[in-house]
Write a structure and sequence with these properties.
With 130 residues, the chain is an all-alpha fold. The longest helix is centred in the last third of the chain and has 36 residues. It has a domain of 34 residues. It starts with a helix and ends with a helix.
Protein backbone atom coordinates (compact mmCIF):
# COMPACT_ATOMS: atom_id res chain seq x y z
CA UNK A 1 0.00 0.00 0.00
CA UNK A 2 2.92 2.32 0.74
CA UNK A 3 4.21 1.97 -2.84
CA UNK A 4 0.79 2.95 -4.26
CA UNK A 5 0.64 6.07 -2.09
CA UNK A 6 4.13 7.08 -3.21
CA UNK A 7 3.18 6.49 -6.85
CA UNK A 8 -0.01 8.60 -6.53
CA UNK A 9 1.89 11.45 -4.86
CA UNK A 10 4.61 11.24 -7.53
CA UNK A 11 2.02 11.21 -10.33
CA UNK A 12 0.04 14.18 -8.95
CA UNK A 13 3.18 16.27 -8.44
CA UNK A 14 4.48 15.40 -11.91
CA UNK A 15 1.21 16.42 -13.55
CA UNK A 16 1.11 19.63 -11.50
CA UNK A 17 4.65 20.59 -12.47
CA UNK A 18 3.95 19.71 -16.10
CA UNK A 19 0.93 21.99 -16.19
CA UNK A 20 2.93 24.88 -14.79
CA UNK A 21 5.79 24.23 -17.19
CA UNK A 22 3.55 24.26 -20.26
CA UNK A 23 1.47 27.27 -19.23
CA UNK A 24 1.79 30.22 -21.58
CA UNK A 25 2.77 33.43 -19.87
CA UNK A 26 1.00 36.35 -21.60
CA UNK A 27 1.19 39.87 -20.22
CA UNK A 28 -2.24 41.31 -19.52
CA UNK A 29 -3.20 44.22 -21.69
CA UNK A 30 -5.13 47.06 -20.07
CA UNK A 31 -5.87 48.59 -23.47
CA UNK A 32 -9.36 48.13 -24.86
CA UNK A 33 -9.88 48.13 -28.56
CA UNK A 34 -12.91 49.89 -29.99
CA UNK A 35 -14.48 46.60 -31.03
CA UNK A 36 -14.70 45.35 -27.46
CA UNK A 37 -15.96 48.75 -26.29
CA UNK A 38 -18.72 48.66 -28.89
CA UNK A 39 -19.83 45.33 -27.51
CA UNK A 40 -19.90 46.82 -24.05
CA UNK A 41 -21.95 49.75 -25.35
CA UNK A 42 -24.53 47.23 -26.65
CA UNK A 43 -23.81 47.86 -30.29
CA UNK A 44 -24.50 51.61 -30.35
CA UNK A 45 -21.72 51.86 -32.90
CA UNK A 46 -20.72 55.52 -32.73
CA UNK A 47 -17.81 55.94 -30.31
CA UNK A 48 -17.44 59.74 -30.53
CA UNK A 49 -18.67 60.21 -26.97
CA UNK A 50 -16.05 57.86 -25.55
CA UNK A 51 -13.12 60.10 -26.49
CA UNK A 52 -11.60 61.58 -23.35
CA UNK A 53 -13.52 59.34 -20.96
CA UNK A 54 -11.53 58.66 -17.81
CA UNK A 55 -8.92 61.32 -18.50
CA UNK A 56 -9.26 63.65 -15.49
CA UNK A 57 -12.62 65.03 -16.54
CA UNK A 58 -11.70 66.00 -20.10
CA UNK A 59 -8.82 68.23 -19.06
CA UNK A 60 -6.88 67.46 -22.24
CA UNK A 61 -9.13 69.89 -24.14
CA UNK A 62 -8.55 72.79 -21.73
CA UNK A 63 -6.43 75.84 -22.35
CA UNK A 64 -3.37 76.18 -20.10
CA UNK A 65 -5.12 78.91 -18.09
CA UNK A 66 -8.22 76.77 -17.53
CA UNK A 67 -6.03 73.80 -16.63
CA UNK A 68 -4.18 75.90 -14.05
CA UNK A 69 -7.47 77.13 -12.56
CA UNK A 70 -8.84 73.59 -12.37
CA UNK A 71 -5.67 72.27 -10.73
CA UNK A 72 -5.68 75.12 -8.18
CA UNK A 73 -9.30 74.33 -7.35
CA UNK A 74 -8.44 70.66 -6.83
CA UNK A 75 -5.46 71.63 -4.68
CA UNK A 76 -7.62 73.94 -2.56
CA UNK A 77 -10.13 71.15 -1.95
CA UNK A 78 -7.40 68.70 -0.98
CA UNK A 79 -5.77 71.18 1.39
CA UNK A 80 -9.13 71.84 3.10
CA UNK A 81 -9.72 68.10 3.53
CA UNK A 82 -6.22 67.48 4.87
CA UNK A 83 -6.41 70.48 7.19
CA UNK A 84 -9.69 69.24 8.63
CA UNK A 85 -8.24 65.74 9.05
CA UNK A 86 -5.26 67.14 10.93
CA UNK A 87 -7.52 69.25 13.15
CA UNK A 88 -9.72 66.22 13.88
CA UNK A 89 -6.72 64.09 14.82
CA UNK A 90 -5.30 66.79 17.07
CA UNK A 91 -8.55 67.71 18.81
CA UNK A 92 -9.14 66.34 22.33
CA UNK A 93 -12.57 67.85 23.01
CA UNK A 94 -15.24 65.37 21.84
CA UNK A 95 -17.78 68.06 20.88
CA UNK A 96 -15.25 70.07 18.89
CA UNK A 97 -13.97 66.88 17.25
CA UNK A 98 -17.51 65.94 16.19
CA UNK A 99 -18.09 69.46 14.85
CA UNK A 100 -14.94 69.17 12.73
CA UNK A 101 -16.01 65.74 11.48
CA UNK A 102 -19.41 67.14 10.50
CA UNK A 103 -17.72 70.03 8.68
CA UNK A 104 -15.49 67.58 6.80
CA UNK A 105 -18.48 65.38 5.96
CA UNK A 106 -20.37 68.38 4.56
CA UNK A 107 -17.36 69.29 2.45
CA UNK A 108 -17.23 65.72 1.15
CA UNK A 109 -20.96 65.75 0.34
CA UNK A 110 -20.61 69.07 -1.49
CA UNK A 111 -17.72 67.67 -3.54
CA UNK A 112 -19.63 64.46 -4.28
CA UNK A 113 -22.67 66.44 -5.43
CA UNK A 114 -20.50 68.56 -7.72
CA UNK A 115 -18.77 65.50 -9.20
CA UNK A 116 -22.09 63.72 -9.75
CA UNK A 117 -23.47 66.77 -11.58
CA UNK A 118 -20.35 66.91 -13.77
CA UNK A 119 -20.64 63.18 -14.53
CA UNK A 120 -24.33 63.47 -15.41
CA UNK A 121 -23.60 66.41 -17.69
CA UNK A 122 -20.83 64.43 -19.41
CA UNK A 123 -23.15 61.45 -19.89
CA UNK A 124 -25.91 63.64 -21.35
CA UNK A 125 -23.44 65.21 -23.77
CA UNK A 126 -22.20 61.78 -24.76
CA UNK A 127 -25.73 60.56 -25.51
CA UNK A 128 -26.47 63.70 -27.54
CA UNK A 129 -23.54 62.80 -29.82
CA UNK A 130 -24.95 59.33 -30.49
Amino acid sequence: MNRINKFVVFFVMTVGVSLVAFAVDKPMSMRHDKGSMQGMMKGKGNMKGMDGMGKMGGMENMSPEMMDQKMRSMQEHMLKMHDLSNQILGENDAKKKQQLKDEQLNLMKKHMKMMKAMHMNKMQNMHKMN
